[in-house]
Task: structure prediction
Amino acid sequence: MSRPHSVFDWLERPLGQTLLAAETEIAERCLGQVFGYQAIQVGRWGSADQFSRSSRTRRYAVLSPHAGAGVDLVSPADALALASDSVDAVILPHTLETETDPHEVLREAERVLSGNGHLLIFSFNPNSLWGIRHRLSNRRFPPGINRLVSEHRLRDWLRLLGFEVLSVTGYCAGPPTTAPAWLRESKLNQPTANGVLKLMGGAFCLLACKRVFTLTRIMPGQKRKRRVLAGLAEPSRRIST
Result:
């Protein structure tokens, strides 16, 4: 079989289809609890409706730096053409791994998300067999994936941006060579939120929520009177002679 020329070509191969099947299952579970008016997906991944079928928001749009099938709005991922606090959910399907500045992409996601909005991130695990193959292939596996971001680093970035991580799910713990029937049906491919398989997973999905903390402004007030306990006399003022 010839080498795939792009990530979209790779996703049509058996291994890519195995990955998409696991991610679709996870998206159905995560997005099923996210409601609101608008959800956006930053970056193309799989078919045009790969994740929109799982969305419970009234509208779902795909943004990408390049025009293509299923793209609703052409916009760079690190400078989204959207108003601040305007969407209820942001989906990043391996977007951080294809952009030059993944941290700036997260900043933009935080900016456009409304308070308590949800962020869903799919990412390959650098500390797995998939991550090892990525390094050994000189960053050419899968095609177009420039760098891998660990769960630990992603958690640090999100904490600095005011996100609360709700769940992390690992999947595709099998070897990233082929996707025969035994791998597609194996428990190694089933999503798991904890245990050894989560650590072994070739990829992981992180669901986070943008928390908004209201600051109460303390106004300068009058000097508070000293309180006197019941039953005790008010101390008398000392008079100097």
Observations:
- The domain at 7-210 is CATH 3.40.50.150 (Rossmann fold).
- Helices lie at 7-11, 14-31, 102-112, 129-136, 151-160, 181-185, 196-200.
- DSSP finds seven helices and seven strands in the chain.
- Residues 181-188 have pLDDT under 50 and may be disordered.
